[in-house]
Design a protein that fits this description.
The chain is largely without helices or strands and 200 residues long. The chain has 1 helix and no strands. The longest helix is centred in the first third of the chain and has 7 residues. The structure holds zinc ion. The site of zinc ion has 8 residues, from loops.
Length: 200
Amino acid sequence: MESTHYHPLECEAADCQGVALTGAKHCWKHLPDKQAYINALDPATLEGAWLAGADLRGVDWAGANLADARISKAQLDEANLAGANLERAFLDEASLRHVNLQDARLGLAVFGGADLSGANLRGADLKRANLVGATADKADFTSADLYYSRPGNGSFQSACFADANLQRAIFRRADLAEADLRGASGRGNFEDANLRGVKQ
Ligand SMILES: [Zn+2]
């Protein structure tokens, strides 16, 4: 790897202030052959990788190691990240519609402003994850562990939290209209949350 987020390199394109992607000389915008770059990535070795802004829609990266990776503003719609390790990864403002994160390790990951609509997060470990302002309408958090997570100001309309652990989860001002909380355990903070039509 030529760069990790600990020692990020600047994009070589003239006048670009962006950071070069891991293993490349350019940021996503200036990367000459984007598909070849994606094909050459080994998802088992992307710990700390810089993939901000990349179009990774539909990649099959089940079990990938993306701990501490910088994936902000990337597109991961329909990607398979089941069982992946994304602990402490930055996924803020990423598009993760219908992504498969079943049983993924997401402790301390940052999803601020991300779009997780329709995502599969069944059994995922979201302990202390930052979901502030995230959109996760119709997402499936069944049996997920949201201990001390921060879903405040997020949108979770018709999302499913059945049998999830919500101990100390901070849903302040979140929109949980029609969400399914049946069997969820723990005491979350639902101050000023919209709980219209919640099933519990
Ligand atoms: Zn650039």
